[in-house]
Amino acid sequence: MNLKSHKLLARTRRHFFRECGVGVGRIALASLLAESVPAASRADASPLAPRKPHFDPKAKSVIYLFMAGAPSQLDLFDEKPKLNELDGQAPPPSLMKGKRFAFMERMSDAKLFGSPWKFKSYGESGTRVSDLLPNIGAVVDEIAVIKSLRTENFNHAPAKIFAHTGSVIAGRPSLGAWVTYGLGSEANDLPGFVVLQSGPRGPRNGPIIWGSGFLPSTYQATPFMPGPEPIFNLKSQPGVTHERQGRTLQAIRELNEMRLDETGDREIATRISSYEMAYRMQTGGTELMDLAGETDATLEMYGAKPGEASFANNCLLARRLVERGVRCVQLYHTEWDHHQNLIKGHRKSAGEIDRPAAALIRDLKQRGLLDETLVVWSGEFGRTPMAEGGMATIGRNHHIDAYTGWMAGGGVKGGQTVGATDELGFHIVEDEVHVHDLHATILHLMGLDHERLTFRFQGREFRLTDVAGRVVEKALA
Amino acid sequence: MGPTRFGGPPPQTGPPRSHLWGAHHSGGYLLDRPRTDQIVATGFNRNTLLQIEAGTDREQYRVEIVYDRVDTMGTVFLGLSVGCARCHDHKFDPISQREYFGLYAFFNSTDDWDDSRPRFRQRSINNLHEVHAPLLEFGSPDEIARRDAIRAQVEALEDELAAYRRSAKPAKDDLGLAERQRLIDQLVRSMPRIDSTMVMRELDEPRETFLHVSGNFLSPGERVEPGALAAMHPFAGRQEPNRLDLARWLVDRENPLTARVAVNRIWQEYFGLGIVETENDFGTQGSAPTHPELLDWLAVEFMERGWSRKAIHRLILNSAAYRQASRARPELEERDPRNRLLARQNRLRLDAEIVRDVGLSVSGLLTPTIGGPGAYPPQPEPAMLASQLKKTWEPSEDEGRYRRGMYTFFWRVTPHPALMVFDRPDSNIACTRRTRSNTPLQALTLLNDAAFHEFYQAFARRLIEVPRDERIGRAFEFAVSRRPEAREAAVIERLLANERDALQTKPRDARLLAADGAEDPIELAAWTSVARTLMNTDEFIVRE
Question: Which chain A residues are Cβ-neighbours of B487 within 8 angstroms?
């Protein structure tokens, strides 16, 4: 209520006629039933109404492709000939000294593990990408690869919470919540922050990582489910036809207006606009999920099949969402946690994300949307240069000292690599990008200053970037 | 803060009829002869988040838990942002980092999952009880003994199985394996289920506390003894003070904060904002009270009435300030636009649980039972999908289906969507004031959710019993406790007429809407639409 307490307050009848008379009050039923109302004409009462950024944004929307479980940078982007050369040997003791790992007990006699995959140069930039990601390789000139990401916790749950909220402890607002809180949404018939999941299970922590923490719950993500009803309660109950819903809403609206007139409480105006938006969402949400209007070429490019709950479908949906003005889309792909059977596991997971992720970039570009859409790809940490397990089941452990992610689109300088790691890929040797820095950069591209985007809670101002974070200038166009 | 239950049976007195499981020491309780409800109440501090993921550094998370308990105590009881002093002296309030760790020391010697305890293990039965210990269990000694014996048997069999699997490649049809597995399954099925709750216990040997340099537990600084805040009233601790001494200090008559913070939060429930608006910051950065004398008086009343929260609720509810109308008044608009001086009441959207409660109550479906285990009202089917572990949600078919919202079982990872959409806090960190959002998802929930749809159908059945010409008036009385204005009644008349027309042409819709085999499905369905309309008005979910 912090944010809106001033709105709870009274408005006089006079006020109502002056302010709402031209705002909500006169958006007639015609517009309630119309397919779309421009966001600008929506009542400014809505907490999701678009708001001005701190400065001119480079991107209007952000799509975060989150690889839950932590992909191996060494097998996808960070090519290490020296590691291949020393495959099977013990790592230099200096690397391991004083290091703490998850599953510490398994790391005592770990051996170096060269990547089983070959790397190739792609595009004009000649960026090297592994054979696991040929399609991403083909669009690599749009991408800024960041090889020097770093995080703070080597367990999945806290590291995921950290990657999303800038804290290892649950309860802070997520990146998407902060962005939506800062900017509102341009979407007229959809939520401002949407989560799309694919894979065998939800990511660890579930809603905690896309929640609004102590921000008003308006800013939490709405997880979309596969199928024609992506949002809880989007479909009316049996017997409630479209016309019946319309008639009922008209009556609700009239009663609400009378009460607004009677009490002068402007929250009622917000309630009226919420109901109108809900009614539009019932159509908009269903329409969004219907891929029938997409051409075969588009479906083919993504590898999407209507009706499936796949990463490919979700990438296509992500494009459809930002097209409709949704501010933040967070995609989850599980599962990358290959302590064992990394060769088989990574081949499968990479195979699932390579084509759709590349198609998303291509598709956004061909529609002229890439300039205003930021696409981010990362896991919660990376994986060790050392092996885990014997040859038959070989895998890699969690690694937080250096891992790779990438950004593309709005405001990002593509076709380049930021940061570098040592010859075994263990430590960062150039341009460390801490998770707080990545967050600061994403906010910056959205037109938000991470030091000014604050919310007061438990007696102090909170930020996504806590007391750290600096914008990664090298990544910017 | 949220819905609180008052009343019900008095707390059980006499020796506890419960048993402590897994205490790693002999003593532990700070009161001499604690009652069961007192022991259960220690769960307030105990139920912090646990990080049990494989490979976890248990000490790191034990430390996080202690931080959380200290910060919660500061926010909830003192209204102070003590957490600010974890890494450095507080920038604004007189709380040094050393004092922070003085408070930390009180909470640092409790029995929690640490490096000395077994890791979490998932077998046929998991060992969550070892992770969660100490637990207060509510079973007869016989039951508990039987359960422990079965646990031991299963563990032994699992060990045998593991050894067996390691030793050689057993054939698929090996009886030894199959038989053991069958035995395990049988034992697991026969294991008695015993209710339990996590409780606080002190260790026999207190842990030493060191200041964490820059808030990093891996950089211990000087050693710190338990102690309170010097800027406040004196701490009358003994030689080796413990949490009980801290608790006594918190509720000392001389403590200037605890009672004020508590009554301020109760006030906030009824007026939207507290007398001190920053209910969690009574420090120098907080806002000044709007009615300082009132705050003082309420705080003293609270103490003099034996710290009875119920008494303060009653006092506020009977006050003239509370009973004012909430209608906006033009003459106040300019002088006090935020209504901080309370020349009138404020309209407040009901808390998430109570949105459900009013639906239950108006529809006549409410099960008024107090206490007992959690309830499972219907929820949209995919609500449990976000969970990493597969969990199910079987909606109660019995009276549990219609219990108050505060009894709805709460999974922190997959909370009931209808609660979260109306701003129920996520229960991860202490929350002293709820937000009140106003969103399209709330509208979708009330319009389309299956649980609410049942309320509308039941409300319609209730209305159809009312003589025809009184129905609209009674409908308003049931739903919003007042008679309708003529123009409001006209809206309903028009809706009814349109609905009857539409339903005449599509009687199938009427049967779908009216649910139960009604005598006159069209009339019942039309009234279902009326019920839906009234229960979707802003007024229905607002305390006016």
Answer: 258
